[in-house]
Amino acid sequence: MQKKTLFLLGAVLFISLACTLGGTPPAETPNTNNSIATSVALTLAANGQSAPGAELPTPLPTMTESLPPTATLIPTIALTATPSVPMISVSVNTNCRTGPGKNYDYLGALVVGEKAEIVGKNTSNDYWVIKNPDASGNCWLWGYYATVSGNTANLTEYIVPPTPTPSIPLAPSNFTAAKTCTAGVLPAYDLEVKLSWVDNATNENGFYIYEAGVLDADIKQADVTQHTMNAAVSDGVPITFAISAYNGTGESAQATVQVVCP
C-alpha cells in the first residue's frame, strides 16, 4: 500500500512538471547594464563560449608609442661678410700707370700692406683699374702680384687706351770728365776721358755724346751713366764734350763739360 501511494505521488509530480516545462517561457528582460554584460561576455569568450545574442566588443588596436627621432645637431657656420666694395692688395710693390704696360706713364704705386679700391678691370691683359693710392684719379695695376677681395663680377670692363706718345726725356746732369793726357807729337796730346753723368730720365732709348759740337757716340741703351772716349787735342786748347738723352719723340737738352791738356 505504501509503495502504491509513493508511485501515485511520483506520477502526479511528473505530470505536473511536464505541464510546466511544456508551457510558454516567461519573457526575457533585456540587460541594460552594458558593463556587466561586457564583463560576462569577455569571461565566456575566455572560456571558449559566447552568450546567446551577445556580441563581443571589438578589441582596441594596440597603441605603440613612437619615440621622437634622434635629434641631429647642425653645426653653426661662421659667415664672413663679403666687402661691398672690391679691394686689392699686392705681395710685391707694383707700379700703377695710365694703361697696361711700361709704355704708359707712371702715376703711382701700390705697395705691400696697402689697399686700394677697384673701379674696373681689363680681363684679357690681367689688369685692374684702381683708385690711385698716391694721387687723385684712377690708374692701371698689373694683377700678377695682386690679391682681390669682394665681388668683381659687375665691374666695368675697360678698353686698353692708345699707347701714349712718349715725352722728350729729361736731360742728364752732373756731367763730369776724368782726363788722362799723354804727350804725343807736340804740341798735340792724346786724351783719354772718362765721362760720367746722372741719368734723370725714365723714358730714354739712349744717349748722344758730342765732341766739339760733333756727334761722336750714340749709346743705344737706357740707364747708362758712364762712357770712355779718346781724342787728339792741342796743348792748352780746351775741348767741350756734351751729352743728351733721346727717345722716339726727340732729344733732351745737353749737359756739357770742358777738358784741357795738359
Please outline the helices and strands:
Elements lengths: L1 H21 L11 H13 L40 E4 L3 E4 L8 E5 L5 E7 L4 E5 L6 E5 L3 E4 L6 E2 L15 E11 L4 E11 L7 E6 L2 E6 L6 E9 L4 E8 L8 E5 L3
Parallel strand pairs: 4-8
Antiparallel strand pairs: 1-4, 1-7, 2-3, 2-6, 4-5, 5-6, 9-10, 10-13, 11-12, 11-14, 14-15
Structure notes:
The chain is mainly beta. Among the domains are: 71 residues, SH3 type barrels (Roll), CATH 2.30.30.40; 87 residues, Immunoglobulins (Immunoglobulin-like). The protein is built from 2 helices and 15 strands. Strands 1, 2, 3, 4, 5, 6, 7 and 8 form an 8-stranded mixed β-sheet that branches. It has a 4-stranded antiparallel β-sheet with strand order 12-11-14-15, with no helix packed on it. Strand 4 and strand 5 form a beta hairpin. The longest helix is centred in the first third of the chain and has 21 residues. About 11% of the residues have low confidence.
Summarize this entry quickly:
The protein is mainly beta.
Largest sheet report: 8 strands, mixed
CATH homolog superfamily of the domain at 173-259: Immunoglobulins
**Strand and helix order:** HHEEEEEEEEEEEEEEE
Helix content: 10-25%
Unreliable spans: 17-33, 53-57, 60-67
- Shape field: elongated
Oligomeric state:
single chain
What's the CATH first level of the domain at 173-259? Answer: Mainly Beta
Q: Compute the separation of the termini in Å.
A: 202 Å
Number of strands: 15
Determine Rg (CA atoms, Å): 61 Å
Secondary-structure class:
mainly beta
Overall pLDDT score: 81
> Can you tell me the CATH topology of the domain at 173-259?
Immunoglobulin-like
Question: Under the CATH scheme, which architecture of the domain at 173-259 would be assigned?
Answer: Sandwich
Q: Count helical runs.
A: 2
Q: Which range does the strand content fall in?
A: 35-45%
